[in-house]
Specification:
- By secondary structure, the protein is α/β, with parallel strands linked by helices.
- The protein folds into two domains: about 170 residues, Bordetella uptake gene, domain 1 (D-Maltodextrin-Binding Protein, domain 2); about 120 residues, Periplasmic binding protein-like II (D-Maltodextrin-Binding Protein, domain 2, 3-Layer(aba) Sandwich), CATH 3.40.190.10.
- The protein contains 13 helices and eleven strands.
- It has a six-stranded mixed sheet, sandwiched between helices. A five-stranded mixed sheet has the order 7-6-8-5-9, sandwiched between helices.
- Helix 7 links the parallel strand 6 and strand 7.
- Helix 1 packs parallel to helix 10 and helix 7 crosses helix 13.
- It is globular.
- It starts with 8 loop residues before the first helix and ends in a 6-residue tail after the last helix.
- About 45% of the residues are buried.
């Protein structure tokens, strides 16, 4: 039999590992014991902010602790994301952000944090297609007509986005590359600025989240041409995909993800993720999803972490192929 001395490095390492495991389990059992700061790296009133307030209220009702939404807009979401990345790794600072965070490492030259290293994925909360919408003045009522028009008039069609490197910019570049068309990028500060620009025909097309675009499509201010998922979303069964309408293989789903600070005990991360999944299945939250145009996901931390790494690689590839220069 091999005996391990009490003074051996191996024995000390085993003891420390056991202590950390016991501490992590104890922390998860009592968690949460104080208010939680829920960072939204966008302005109040936007789609992500609305979701955070609904989710935060449900978490608070379940756990009996305040969940306070903290809007930290700016720098494409990096101000708020960095605040979470540099917070104490105790599970009391959360981040709710769109899939655009996957572009941060490839896009920003002077990033003060690394998302895959400094943030702990908790759960992919929702998934959805982005909607390709058009100005009512554009003489195209389908994707095929849009592509024909773009090929006949190269450089004459503008598309709006929420900024260089945003997911809305990258999906526009993916369309430009995949369809072989010449369309011009026009960045705006946010969705709220893109919609009037579309109505006024300052830009002719844009990719927008359903929670932003659906109401404008229903009231006739915008025209929906296609959705970005590979297959039709269950929330938008009558709207064709780009994949089936002239750009084979096109697939660019959008998602909203919940993160906390890297180094948070795994047991605490799992407890938050488990409650997120339960909450998303509840009728109290489920009633909001159709109006938001999204589907509940509720993936566990390990599954979301693997998906997030794949998304980072995908966004990096698009940025390289589109030759988008780094942003300071």
């Amino acid at each position: 039999m091999i005996r391990i001395s009490l003074r051996s490095p191996l024995r000390r390492s085993l003891v420390v590992a056991c202590l950390f495991a016991v501490m992590g389990a104890a922390a998860a059992q009592s968690y949460p014991v104080k208010p939680i700061r829920f960072v939204v790296p966008f302005a109040a009133g936007g789609a992500t902010d609305v979701m955070a307030r609904v989710f935060g209220q449900k978490f608070s009702e379940t756990w009996g602790q305040p969940v306070v939404v903290d809007n930290r807009p700016g720098a494409g979401g990096n101000i708020g994301s960095e605040a979470v990345a540099k917070a104490a790794p105790d599970g009391y600072t959360w981040l709710l952000i769109s899939s655009s965070i996957a572009s941060a490492s490839s896009l920003y030259r002077k990033l003060n944090y690394i998302p895959v290293r400094d943030l702990a994925p908790v759960s992919q909360m929702t998934s959805s297609a982005l909607l390709l919408v058009a100005s009512p003045a554009l003489p195209a009522s389908s994707l095929k007509e849009l592509l024909a028009l773009a090929r006949a008039q190269p450089g004459r069609i503008n598309y709006g986005s929420t900024g260089v490197g945003s997911s809305i910019n990258l999906v526009g570049e993916l369309l430009r590359i995949s369809a072989g068309i010449d369309i011009v990028h026009v960045p705006y500060k946010g969705d709220a600025q893109i919609i009037p620009a579309l109505v006024a025909n300052e830009v002719q097309i844009a990719f927008l989240p359903p929670q932003t675009a659906l109401a404008q499509v229903k009231n006739g201010k915008l025209r929906a041409l296609a959705q970005t998922n590979m297959t039709r979303s269950t929330t938008l069964p009558d709207l064709p995909t780009l994949n089936e309408s002239g750009v084979p293989g096109f697939d660019f789903p959008s998602w909203i993800g919940l993160f906390t600070t890297a180094g948070t005990p795994p047991e605490v991360v799992k407890k938050i993720g488990d409650e997120a999944a339960r909450m998303l299945r509840s009728p109290e939250v489920g009633k909001y999803l159709p109006a938001w145009g999204v589907e509940a996901s509720g993936t566990p931390p390990d599954v979301f972490a693997a998906h997030f790494r794949r998304e980072v690689d995908k966004y990096a590839k698009i940025i390289r192929e589109a030759k988008i220069p780094p942003v300071d």
